[in-house]
Amino acid sequence: MKQKLFALSAIAVMAMVGMFVFENTATAHEQTRSKKESRNVSRGRIARMVNPLSALNQSLIDLTFGVKADQETLAKVLPIYQETREALEKQIKEARTAADSRREAAKKISEGVKETYTKFNASLKEILTEEQMTKLTELKEKRHTETKERVRQHRRSQRENHSHRRHR
């Protein structure tokens, strides 16, 4: 029984990691293509918001490898992650088709994501110990801080490159 649970959990984690890698690769390709298409429109700005699906995938990776949750706990939380993933995918698809502009779509996605993540965190709190939840939150905040710093550095380098071009 434990071996089956372990095998199922391992397969589920590998599937989530696979989806994470695939999604980030596709997103990176899309961002590169988008930058080439709109180079003159949004010069010096990062127009994309953080992908909520990538953040969800990273949360599962953090829970598995950072928090080091046991197989039983992972088996309990995997359905929560899957339900949240499906809800986010649905919200993103609906917002993109209903919105007139990217800005409107981003706003709708952001509002939906906040509500979905509130439910997601409440569900996790029912399963994870306080210590596990604290560690998971710390890892998420650390990643958020690192991302903000990368964005700042990117903006700074964009401004510097832009000012160097003007002085030539």
Describe this structure in words.
- It is a single chain.
- The longest helix is centred in the last third of the chain and has 37 residues, at 130-166.
- The chain is globular.
- It has 168 residues and is mainly alpha-helical.
- It has 5 helices and no strands.
- The protein has a domain at 1-26 and 47-130.
- It has helices at 2-37, 52-66, 71-98, 102-127, 130-166.
- It starts with a helix and ends with a helix.
Overall SS class: mainly alpha
Proportion of residues in helical segments: over 70%
Q: In percent terms, what proportion of residues is strand? A: under 5%
Q: Residue ranges: pLDDT <50 for 5 or more in a row?
A: 37-47
Rounded mean pLDDT score: 81
E-strand count: 0
What is the terminal separation in angstroms?
A: 70 Å
- What about the largest sheet? none
- H-E order: HHHHH
Please give the radius of gyration in angstroms.
19 Å
Tell me which oligomeric state these chains represent. single chain
Q: What overall form do the CA principal axes indicate? A: globular
What is the overall number of helices? 5
Throw out a few tags for this protein.
single chain, 168 residues, mainly alpha, globular
